[in-house]
Amino acid sequence: MIRVVLVDDQPLLRSGFRALLDLEDDIEVVAEAGDGVEGLALVREHLPDIALIDIQMPVVDGIEATRRIAADPALAGVHVVILTNYGLDEYVFDALRAGAAGFLVKDIVPEDFLHAVRVAARGDALLAPSVTRRLIDRFVTQPLHTGAEVELEELTNREREAVALVAQGLSNDQVAGRMMISPMTAKTHVNRAMAKLHARDRAQLVVFAYESGLVTPRGR
Fold it and tell me: Listing from the earlier edge strand, what are the strands of the sheet with 102-105?
């Protein structure tokens, strides 16, 4: 069962998302909140698999809530998915760096919304296509981070290759196909890279790949 805490300051949207989730046999909304402070308290109380958090809220916004969840070792198993509007995707970069597993735009179709929750619960990076382009554009304008370049040296060549493929949006099975190795070996390379880089999930591998220069956006 995928356990979800839903945090959004718009009651109508929140009730709509909950209605969708409650219809699914494998998903349970264990709590909901209307602001970041209450949401954080409920996340700590219920330890959900997924925290669906609106990016703009009173008191504590989605980016700060994500940062606090990522910084708490007791919440290491919580995957944060940010809910955003089309006009807010300039915050994608900051929230990913804060520890978000990915993003969903609020006008997403129900089938894609439910699929996304399940993808995030597996620990896979989740970036809605409508915000991915803005994310890459933001990386183009960011200077490379020396610290990330140093961390890159800690990875083996095969781990670097796996991380680069993850940053292109490939699944473990697809990574295995490109590297001509078994899916289990591909998963091992990805997991070892995550451990060495202290990455919460695959989304942080994407951030690292661009910050270190392992993957270079077109236009840099």
Answer: 27-33, 2-7, 50-54, 79-84, 102-105, 126-127
Which structure tokens are listed for 18? 């909950």
- In this structure, what is the dihedral angle of CA atoms 85, 88, 93, 94, given to the nearest 10 degrees? -110
Determine contact, residues 131/81, Cβ cutoff 8 Å: no
Burial of residue 35 (number of CB atoms within 10 Å: 0-12, 13-18, 19+): middle
What distances in angstroms separate CA 56 from CA 10, 35, 53, 121, 196, one per listed residue?
10, 9, 9, 23, 32
> Would you state the pLDDT for residue 38?
95
Given phi > 0 = left and psi -120 to 50 = alpha, else beta, which region is 123?
left
Instruction: Please say whether the beta carbons of 203 and 190 come within 8 A.
Output: no
Crossing angle of the two packed helices 36-46 and 62-71, in degrees rounded to 10: 30
Whether 36 and 68 have beta carbons less than 8 Å apart is answered as no
Tokens of 83: 């809910």
Which amino acid appears at position 19 of this protein? A
Does residue 140 contact residue 217 with C-beta atoms inside 8 Å?
A: yes
Q: What angle, rounded to 10 degrees, do the helices at 202-211 and 129-141 form?
A: 30
Q: What is the pLDDT of residues 157-211, one digit of tens each?
A: 999 999 999 888 788 899 999 999 999 999 999 999 999 998 887 878 888 887 7
Give the residue, 87 or 137, on which the prediction is more confident.
137
pLDDT of residue 33 exceeding 90, the answer is yes
Distance CA 83, CA 108 (A): 10
Q: How many residues does the chain have?
A: 220
